Each structure stands twice: as C-alpha cells, then as structure tokens.
Amino acid sequence: MSVQDILDKKEEEIKLINQIITHPAGFILDLFGEMLYIRSTMYEFEIGWEELEDNIVMNFTKLFDEALAASTFFVERRHKMQLGIDFESELIREKGVK
User: Fold this and answer.
1) What is the pTM assigned to this prediction?
2) I need a labelling partner for 24 at 20 to 30 A (CA). Which of 39, 61, 71, 90 fits?
3) Using CA atoms, how far apart are residues 60 and 70, in angstroms rounded to an integer?
C-alpha cells in the first residue's frame, strides 16, 4: 500500500467518523474502553483516551469546538495508538497466527 493510499484511507475514515459523531442521534464511539469520542453538547466534542506510563494508566481528555477537528484528532490518535481490529489483524498476520 502506498503512502497516498494510506492518507486517502485516513481521510475516508475521518469523514465517516465525523458523519457518525454529528448524527442527531448522539452516537458515542468507544474503542475497547481505551478511547472514547462523545458529543458533550451541541457544539462541544470530547475525546478521552488512556496511556500507560511507568505501569500506571493515565487518562487524558481533549475538548473541541468543531467536530471535524475532533474527528481528525480521534483518527490520528487511533492510528498512533494502533487501536482497532485493523491493527489487531495486522499484528496477527505479522506473527503468522491464523
């Protein structure tokens, strides 16, 4: 997969996440309890995530006024943390486990 393919997929993911989080139903996105994206109010979006530092679980929260900025952050953070079944599947393939 080329760098451009990866960037294109990320852009598609950001658009999809943004559509879900701005839906009037008020969906919440949760990745394995390690990362959460919620619409706090009509104009406030919140992302929370966990990181392990010196065997201590640290909780972080970031607030956004714009959904697109929050969606972009969510996707970038997800990729940095390698959270998701897509990353899990890749790890399994790399280890040769079927």
Assistant:
1) 0.84
2) 61
3) 14
Cβ neighbours for 84, distance < 8 A, ≥ 6 positions apart: 31, 78
The one-letter code for the residue type at 56 is I
Q: Which amino acid is at 66?
A: E
pLDDT digits (tens, 9 = 90+) for 9-39: 899 999 999 999 999 999 999 999 999 999 9
Can you name the residues that pair with 35 across neighbouring β-strands?
31, 49
pLDDT digit string, tens, across residues 49-83: 999 999 999 999 999 999 999 999 999 999 999 88
Specify the 3-state DSSP secondary structure of 75: helix
Q: Indicate the domain borders of the chain.
A: 3-95
CA 52 – CA 59 distance, rounded (Å): 9
Decide if 30 contacts 36 (C-beta within 8 A). yes
